[in-house]
Design a protein that fits this description.
The structure is a single chain. With 68 residues, the protein is of the alpha+beta class. It has one helix and two strands, in the order ββα.
């Protein structure tokens, strides 16, 4: 059964090592590779802050539409 609430893409901008706005496409399995200090952990930290905001109710209004 397909999960209808899966996050398929994630946009990060001006967060730690990720300055330029970047879309990260997500699949069922994702592998991040890169040099040290290239932003791999930054992506995980951004996703953690994003999901915790929903759990804790910190986001009263958020636009989930994908715009570039």
């Amino acid at each position: 059964m397909e999960n209808k609430f899966a996050i398929t893409a994630f946009y990060v901008e001006n967060f730690k090592a990720i300055r330029k706005g970047t879309w990260f496409e997500l699949n069922k399995l994702n592998v991040l590779t890169g040099a040290n200090s290239s932003g791999k952990s930054t992506l995980f930290n951004a996703m953690k802050i994003f999901t915790e905001g929903f759990v804790d109710g910190d986001f009263t209004l958020i636009n989930l539409s994908r715009r570039q």
